[in-house]
Structure formats: structure tokens, C-alpha cells
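Model: You mentioned two targets. I'll fold them one after the other.
Researcher: Yes, keep them separate.
Model: Target one:
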Amino acid sequence: MSDAAAPTLIAVDGGGTSCRFALLHAGARTDLQAGPANVSTDFDAAIATLRGGLDRLAGCVGLSAKEIRAASGHLGLAGVVDARLGQLVAQALGLRSAVVEDDRRSAVVGALGPGDGTVIGVGTGSFLARQVAGRVNLLGGWGFRLGDEASGADLGRGLLRRILHAADGLAPATKLTESILSELGGTPADVVAFAGRASPSDFAAFAPRIVAAAEAGDPAARALMEEGAAYLMRAAKTLGWSAGEPLCPIGGLAPRYAPFLPRAATESLVACKGTALDGALALAARQAGKGAE
């Protein structure tokens, strides 16, 4: 197929911090970035960001707004909690041949490419996924209130819990727990007050210090990292992962678990092949292939 005859594809990786767009047209790829787009927390603002990004993409290559919205596409967006919301987004944007879903599957396809393997995604939140023969099965990703085990937010919450346990005499205080207690005001009541107003990102802000303290031998921090690593391994095995199959860490925190994983896991670790935006573009190509059948 010549470049001129190749289908036009659109891909979006949208999150609460920024939104990335890619357009493949006439064999050339165009990328751009815009502001946040979480359709659950602010639907109208997210749609405005997405619409503006699509219009900018169209302008970059001389397509009309109508032409770009007719292209096959895949939008992986934070906050798309079910198919109904995905359909509402597609309708609001006037997309006729695009799939809109949450951002996990595009991250998996970007990380693994077409190959089999398991992804451990850990940042402020967490999820795991396993891809076999192009099919992606997901686990976790249920959010901070009920899930996100081993995530940065979960580590931070666990640290504050250990501070309170130390105050109650249930666990020994450590250098890390005493330091954080002092920073928060010095009393258990201060810890509780902070937790009551903290967002997941606020809890996750403690994660880098927890990791560093764990690597330095702090007992409370090591326990948190070991518990997180145990959860990640249990989840990976639940998905069907076994030693020797590629295990790909994505997200800012996932690679920091490597020293706390069993040898079979560390020997299976592989680097990401691409980004979530690359994955969304690959899924858009699959969508175009289905449309041509």
C-alpha cells in the first residue's frame, strides 16, 4: 500500500496532567500535546481539550475537521470508566470510527508491542495486565479508595498508618516514621488531619522517600515495599504470568520494586518497546483493519 493510500489514523493518550495526540496521514506521523483531559472529573473541559487537539492536528496536515473525525482512531483516556462514557465522548467529538476507552490497554500495547507478556503499571495508582496473542486481560486499577495496591498513593497511606501504629505501641518507630511525623506536626492528630484532606497525589508524594529509605534499610519502608512487591507478584501470577515470560514495568514507581521482587521476576524484566501513545496508534491501525474487512 502506498503512503497516499494508507488510512489516516488518530491516537490519543489522555490523562489528568496532559493529553498527547498523534496523527498518521500519508505515511507521516504528527505529534502534539495539550492540557489535561479526565472525562470523569471534568467532562466539558476534557472535551474542549480533545476537540482543540484534534483541530490542531487537522490543521497541521491540511485536513478538515470533518475529515479527521472520520479517521479510524483509538483514544485511551483517564476517567473512561465504562463503555457508555466512551460512547458519550465519541459522540461529543463527532468521531465516527474511533474507539474510546480507558488508558490501560493502550499503555500495555505500547509497552509490549504485538508480543506476549505481562505489564506492571505503578505510579500514583496501579494496575496489571497480560497480553497473549493480541488479547489484553486487565487486573486492578480500581482507584485509591478500593484498590491501587502497591501504588505510590498506597505506599504513602501505609506509611501514615505505620506512624499511628508506632504511636499506639503496635510497631516500633523508625527514622522514616519519626521524620514524617515531625513534618506533619508531631502528633497522631496531625497525621489524621493530613490524611483527611490529602488527595492520592498527596499520599504518593511520600513514595520517593519510602523507596529511598527502604533501600537504606529502614524497617517500616522495607516492609511497605515488600508488601507491595508481594501483591504485584500475586496479581501477575493470577493473570497467568510465569517465570521467563516478559515482565514489563511501566510508570514512575514500577521499576523501583525490582530489588524487592523474587529472582524469577527480576530475570524476566524487560524494557518498554514504546509509549501509551504508540499503543493507541497501533490499536487505531487494528480498528482501521476491522473497518476494511
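Model: Target two:
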Amino acid sequence: MIAPAVTLEIEQSLSERGILMSGGSSDRCEVLTISQGRYKAEINTFGGGIKSLSFDNKPLTETYSDSDNPPLSSGVVLAPWPNRTADGAFVYAGQRYQLELTEPARNNAIHGLVHNRLWTIAKHSQDGAVLKISLGTGQGWPWPVEIEAEYLLKDDGLHAHFRAFGTGPFGWGWHTYLSPLGEEVDRAVLTLGVDQELPLGERNLPVGERTSLSLPLGTGVPIAGHLLDNCYYASNGPVRATVAVDGRGVAMECSDNVRWFQVFTPDSAWGMPYPGRDRAIAIEPMTVPPNALNTGINSIDVHEHFECSVRISAL
């Protein structure tokens, strides 16, 4: 547990930067448009992620109509933990904490604490935007932390940089749905530079040690016919993923500290279609696996910070 003096130091530091317990600047979300060359993106202050990304007006990500309610967590940032925490409970530094059960059907806490909150606009220009959000000492999470998402369009795609300042346990993820230039996802081939799979049980929690891959993702797998909600790991980075039809589509490249990936296919077959498309594919980069608050998670220090990056581009 963090000593009171250390917690006070963190709160004072974050307060001086004007971000302690901050959220959006209004009661409703704002959608920021950025563009550069052949790329265009929309950044949503609800959830701090991307609402859309396109190349020559063809989509590289799935989008949605209701900006206040991204379907199936489309495009949102996942922190200070991604994925799931079993029973919403964990022990850190000898102290037990209880999170709200946000996936009650499976008795889990899911997707962290910032995916359904308004973020503050720190900067907005023609080709970029920076959003920030801060967590204070709320229920189940007593560690103040500032999280920043920077989105910048260049001629080679969208460069997304994520940073966190504070202390305590911290994990990051991004719930991105990739689109092969608007083609039906079942016409596409998925490649993902991973070499291990983490078996998950009925609650989508780990049920064993990492194993070899059940699908040859490194060389490419046709998406058609697969219902996926699987977790993968890469022994070596940086990791690259592609979703493409006849070699044309979208690529995602992650910094070396992003080695975990949840791959999820919305489908009406299991009651979770993506609105307007039914089938879609989420490639969720993460720095830690599901239930990491219970199985081991990285920490950040008040004098340090977390940082990772992702680039999404057209093929």
C-alpha cells in the first residue's frame, strides 16, 4: 500500500498540473477531426479513443453513429488495466481492493476505469489531438494517475502515443476494430506476429499457462468461419498485425513493450454483432494479459512514467 505521505506528494504533483480527478470539459462528448494527406481521423473524448480512421475515404477502423456510446467498446482506451479482473478483486502490496463488477454476467471488472468517461482536450490541431484524463482516490483504486493519449496523422498513417504518470499498478490496452478498407471482414486474412496463446475459460479468464498457437497467425489465417475471443502473446517484438483482402487493407504496428493481444470477432452467432456489419474484428493491443491485477502487473513510480505507441496505416 502507498504511504499517506507518498500519496499526498502524488496528489500535489497532479493537482499542480491541473489534472487531479479531471474529466471532459462538458457533459457531452466532443469529436475532434484531424487530417493529413490521404488520412483522416475522428477522435472521441468519450473513452479517449478513435471514432474513425480512413485512407482515401476508405475505413481502416470500424466506426459508429452514437458518439456517447461506442458499441462494444469500439476504439476506447483501456486503463489502468485492460481486459478483465476476476471477481473485481485483487491484492496489491499486501492490501485487498474491490472494483465495481462491470461485467456482472461473468463476475468480472472489465476494461479499466477510463473507457466510459469523458477525457479533457489538451490540444487540437489540423493533424493531431491530445486528450488527458486523471483518476483520483476512487472506489477500489486509491492511486492518482494521469493518462494521456496523443494522436498524430502523418503521411505514413496514424501515430498514437499513450503515457501515464503517477504510481501504483498500471496496465494499458486499446480496443481497436480494424477494417480492410471497408471490405467485408470475412473476405480478409488476419496476420499477427505472436507465437503463444493464453487459454481462457468461460469467464474469459486465464485457465492455464501459455501454449503454442491453435491458428497459424504468423503466416495468415482467413477470418471467415472463426469465432474468436482469444488472447495471444509475442515472445519477441515489436509486433505487427494486418487485416487485408488480396494484400490490401490495414496494418497495426506496436512498440516493443506491447506484447499481448486480445482478438475478438463480434458476431450475432453469440449475441454480439457489430452494429451495421454483424461481423467485425477487434485487435486489442495490451501491455498485460487478462486478470493481470491478480497474476502480476507492472507498476509506475511517481518519478517515472509509462509510455507505449501504436501506428495504424493502410496497406
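Researcher: Noted. Anything on target two?
Model: Residues 4-314 form a domain with the Beta-galactosidase; Chain A, domain 5 fold (CATH 2.70.98.10).
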